[in-house]
Amino acid sequence: MFSVVRDPRMSILGLKKKQPKTFKVKVITMDAEVEFSCEVKWKGKDLFDLVCRTIGLRETWFFGLRYTVKDTYAWLKMEKRVLDQEVPKEFPITFHFLAKFFPEKVEEELVQEITQHLFFLQVKKQILDEEIFCSPEAAVLLASYAIQAKYGDYDPNFHKPGFLAQDELMPKRVLMQYQMTPDMWEEKITAWYAEHRGIARDEAEMDYLKIAQDLDMYGVSYFSITQNKRDTELLLGVDAQGLHIYNPNNKLNPNKSFPWSGIRNISYSEKEFTIKPLDKKKEVFKFYSSQLRVNKLILQLCIGNHDLFMRRRKVDSIEVQQMKAQAKEEKARKKMERQILSREKQMREEAERAKEDMERRLFQLQDEARLANEALLRSEETADLLAEKAQIAEEEAKLLAHKAAEAEQERQRLEVTALKTKEEKRLIEQKMREAEQLTVKLVEQSERRLKEADHLKQDLNEAKDAERRAKQKLLEITKTTYPIMAAYSSPPLTLEGGGDLNLDAGPCRTDFKDSDMKRLSMEIERERLEYMEKSKNLQEQLKELKSEIESLKLEEQQQSSLFAPRNDPRLYFEPPYVPHSNVSIPV
């Protein structure tokens, strides 16, 4: 245990002024504002006890009334009158009811639910205001517990996207560190929030504090100091564990620490503080603070934190034991109530689901009944329509039977006609074959006659050529030999009557006479005329035969369409091919 040495020169005497009997005070807690009318003679403890009684707080040793004075803050002293301290002179006087000292282990030391709630609100505000450094991952987890404490269990039907838009959940530093939209942050927080189902409000707040107490800046009060005469700027940190020395730009990792268990004495004189370790071999640490008011504040925090440090290592007082027993009973009772409430809620949800199922089933049955009635009406209408159609079908069946009988008679008549037609067709086909054979013979004969005519024409041309050459030759011979033949009194040469012309001096000979040529030409012309007459008669016969075939085909198609099936092949007679040509035999 260490002792605190006070400099008698530090006592300050306030000027006594005439004051009224009462004055107004406004106390701001983390979740409310309360105004009191205080007596002039009240000390700080009187006002503090009144506030604690009003809010129902019994763990008073963690809290205090803080007020602002000039550029810093101070805590209301319990043993001095309120108006004798450096409180603001404006009425009502404003105080903030805040945690002055922090527990080492929140789960073991915070007994009352109101104490947990006030710590939760204050630590949450310090994290959001960045007075306590928090990593992004821890910030998201802490935000999920804060949402669980505020809204209860997550319900996707009630907690629609955007329900966290009005809540401040993350430090601005974390929001600016990542390029994420508010919807993306809400999605991450909601994912953790959904896993906290079944956690009550006080449990969620305690889980929040258990995570926050592991943060480096949790419960630490920082003050600017200088070391020795070199004016080296440092930071002094006071918390439940002891005193810590930091660099100004690093509040997370202290350069040097002095745990309460290792400090023998702390003293200060004006601006100089001296920390004497319990181990006398260690060096005494001295530092300086420029403001007297800040020195007093540091001294208060050191005394209070050291007292709580020693208190935690002793047996709890009867009051604390009673509070813990009552808190335990209260937690057990609340747990039982939550279980009962949970069962009732589950039963109500099951009843609501059963009701919804029954209503859905009722609606389904009503729809089925409506559909069945509609189907019944349609069936009745269909039955009437089918009965009417059956009557019409019966009448049509009778009519069709009568038509079938008529069709059968017509079919029989057509069969008889078809038999006759087949016989006529056979005779026609036979005539066609005969005509075809005759045509082939005529064509062959025509071709043969054409060939003979060509030969005869060729022979005639050769004969004419031979006659012409013979006459030419005879004229030549006559011109050269006529004088000699006249001398010998030979008979004159005549060519009119025809005859044989024998010339020993030349190779030419003619065997044709004009009468023979005329006779041959007449015979050829006569045969040509006879052939043309026969060909004309044959063409007329073929035309008559073709017209008869066409008429028979037309009659057969008309008859077959009455009794032949739709897909049966119909008889079709192709007229025979009769080759013909206009033969002309040149003379």
Structure explained in plain terms:
There is one protein chain. Among the domains are: 22-99, Ubiquitin-like (UB roll), CATH 3.10.20.90; 113-213, Acyl-CoA Binding Protein (Up-down Bundle), CATH 1.20.80.10; 221-314, PH-domain like, CATH 2.30.29.30; 366-485. Mean pLDDT is 81; it is low at 1-17, 484-513 and 565-587. The strands form three sheets. Strands 3-2-6-4-5 form a five-stranded mixed sheet, with helices on both faces. A four-stranded mixed sheet has the order 1-11-12-13, covered by helices on one side. Strands 7-8-9-10 form a four-stranded antiparallel sheet, covered by helices on one side. A hairpin with a 4-residue loop joins β2 and β3. The longest helix is centred in the C-terminal third of the chain and has 170 residues, at 318-487. It is α+β, with helices and mostly antiparallel strands. The protein is built from ten helices and 13 strands.
